[in-house]
Amino acid sequence: MKRNGFTLLELLAVIALIAILGATTITMFSKNTSFVSNEDLENKYKQIQRAAVVYVDLNESWLSSFTSNNEIYVKLGELQNTNYVSIDTKNPKTGEPFPNSYLIKIYIAKDTSTNKPYVETCILKADQSCVANSDGKNTDCCSAHVCGTLNDAGDCTG
pTM for this structure? Predict the structure, then answer.
């Protein structure tokens, strides 16, 4: 006997396989986009911090204040108003603009093993709670050892 076409059971089996493959692919894709958006967010935080360092470095009044205090806070809104950071910079996870009240703290930290100073940054909310460290991650904000003063050799003292 000659058959033309597929049986109902064969069609249902193929449809079930396609559904399983589709569900697996969607699950894998959604996990991958979550990782990408976290990485994008960390990169945005790092870009904002770099812009703040450049802003302070190029602005004489900010630079002299930074030199005398070994730390300075720059508002994100000021970086946006002076075009160091785009006004429409958005959080890639939420799509919302970053609050212009965020504070970028730039300070002299010291390497505990060599006692040598280096510039460190972090982003804080107005209430001083952590947004991101210098790596763009939401952990250990501004936790590096602060350099009290620099001696003539350029080492941290205190």
Answer: 0.70
